[in-house]
Fold these 2 entries.
Entry 1:
Amino acid sequence: MDTMNTTYYFGAGASALVLPTYSDFTEKLDSFVKLFGSGSGFSKLSPEDRKIALEINRIGNEYLSNEQFSATPDRFARTEFSKGKSLKDLKMLLILFFAERQSSIVSINNDSYKRRILIDPRIDELMSHIIQPIRGKANLDPKFKILTWNYDFQFEMAFGRHSNSSGYHSYIDLQGFPNIDDDDEPRKFDNSRFSIVHLNGVAFFENGAVSMPFNNKISEEEQLVRFIIKYYYHIVRNYCPKKGGIDSLKFAFEYFDETTKPPKAESLDAAITIALNTKDLIISGYSFPSFNRDFDRSIFDNFVSLESVVIKDLPGKEQTLLKTVGNLLLGNFEKNKIEFDINVQTYIN
């Protein structure tokens, strides 16, 4: 018999104590982009590194100056995709930005870096609850599964805090999807293990030549800028030409094709298997935007064994979310005659 899951369904609000949400995303991105066009870190760069820095600055400002970008990166990406435009530069910028936001800054004299929290304490608490401590090993309770729309690395970092794992190895130990291995071989999902599925892919890149910047304790702005430039160099100059793009960060809508519905995708296949075997569903920090609705529906149509649903959101928003979730689950209720308890909880960021 398959493991019956307790499944968490997360949106951007799940890591809002640490990372920008849609309300302050462009403001934080603008501060990041400025690192590569001015400031003490930029002024100390070599001529070659300065060229790369200015390229990052140019790409960032190009997006920030586009009025459509101010909505959400996901929605903007969908618009660009529908126009047939490449998303490579946008994905690269997001990977660099999230690497910087999750870097261990120890003493930079800048207000934006003071007392920076690296891991959302709510995620850290959840991960400590999921881990079953065994001497010398962080064992993960297999009944828990996470479906997240976030492309940050918060859960992987939290796991690393409670284990001997880090970076790429954390992702593999957590049975992360989509596959980010260089071999491109599809991985089969195992419902008897814990798993985290990033529905939009993950803003992560690591190979033998470069590790995520947050694996290094950074003490000055120049060091931070150099790490990001090195990161950029290996992604754009070494990785992308071989792979034809950045496949770790793949937006959900990229899996959809006019001739194939529902879409065939490794992450979606894993999410559907999780849904089919879920009895308890907890939804937190997610607003179910219309541009993700097809993908959400592909998953929610398979929650056929539910016994309970818990919805967590900010005060004043929970009833709207309750209606949306109810509509998504209505088909299951009518078709499969399932009955489940549903309740709403509020939290404060």
Note: The chain has two domains: 1-18+120-205+250-349, 20-116+217-245.
Entry 2:
Amino acid sequence: MVSKKVGLVSLLLLVFYGGVLCAGNGVSALKAGEEPEFFDLVNKKAGFTISVPQNWDTAQKFFGAMTMLISPDGASLNVVLDELADEITTKEYVDKSDSEYPKMFKKFEQHQREPFVSEDLMGILSTYSYERDGKRTKLMQVVFAFGRRVYVLSCGADVDLYPKYEPVFRKIVGSFKLTK
């Protein structure tokens, strides 16, 4: 039996994005076509590395996320390790999450769902948008499941900022590697 917890952590983080995205300091850290400097962030406890922009604020173990990063103008990334009671496939996890999201968010739309490869890891990449407190947010989410361990990488921004950050988000999630 699949745990009811499936998708709830990433769902809560989707809600969290609605508040965080407006918390930027008003300074646009990234101009169109510009790429920030990156460094490798290692999370030994969760067993992964990921390349992230140097000028983003970083927190480990933040609101259930193993890693949370926020750009100066409010774009954000979190990595969640969801440890389940039962084994699950990536597709099962994403299907469960996708069935819950429309119930939770106003004007929820799924834009994309496709296979995603990072190094030798196979996952599923999805993009969504939704409205909260009168603001539209767009989210890219990549899920990798390994038995009972599921890694959920979520990158989000205000819909107006999202196109500027999409290449950065793709670079970040494409750098994800397991270390254990």
Note: The helical segments are 8-20, 90-104, 162-174.
